[in-house]
Amino acid sequence: MNEIYVPKLSIGLVHYPVKDRLQKTVATNVTNFDIHDIARAAQVYGVEKYYIIHPMKEQLMFVERVLDHWRTGQGAKFNPMRKTALGAVETAESVEKALTDWNHPEGLVIATAARSSETLKKYTFSELRQEMHVAKRPVFMLFGTGFGMTEELLSSCSGVLEGIRGAPPNDYRHLSVRSAVSICLDRVMGPW
Predict the structure, then answer these.
(1) Helices (H), 49-159
(2) Helix, strand, coil: what percent of the chain each, to 5?
């Protein structure tokens, strides 16, 4: 029997450096929904690690309290499925620290963005899927919060994934990050 190859994929939810609506570089707050919902999607699609990236210790402590409740506290007894989903969640103070922990220097670091860029290498979903499933390259996929990652962070990546397009004629592109993560994971890791 042939063993199914599962690509090595980790994801990072970037809370800094990101832009606000005025295009200023800011740090956004971690939300409880993002911790839980993205962890569940990560579990469904075989993501190795889900990093929540934030420079502020108070925000990372909030994440750790949530994780402790569901991994070892009353939540672990109340909802074992949630405990399983949150098992892959890690915190990191920066993208660089998350990448160091990930430890795949030969891998691709792929950013996601709703806005297009003319200067960055672009990957379609099928091209990235080919890199992951056929070329067997590890991938670390970054998702921004707020109004997206800074240009400096985007340009430090191996490339940027094509944006998720809305239905014509409006092509509305303001999904929650939770929705965007789920769509991207299905397109690159789904069994279709």
Answers:
(1) 57-71, 74-78, 80-85, 95-102, 125-133, 151-155
(2) 40, 20, 40
Full-model pTM:
0.94
* Domains by residue range for the chain, with CATH: 9-189 (3.40.1280.10)
90, 128 in Cβ contact below 8 A? no
How, if at all, do strands 18-19 and 25-26 pair? antiparallel
For 18, the enclosing helix (H) or strand (E) is strand 18-19
Q: How many CA atoms lie within 13 A of 58 on its CB side?
A: 3
Query: pLDDT by residue for the chain (192 residues), tens digit each?
Result: 678 888 999 999 999 999 999 999 999 999 999 999 999 999 999 999 999 999 999 999 999 999 999 998 888 888 888 889 999 999 999 999 999 999 999 999 999 998 777 788 999 999 999 999 999 999 999 999 999 999 999 999 999 999 998 888 888 878 899 999 999 999 999 987
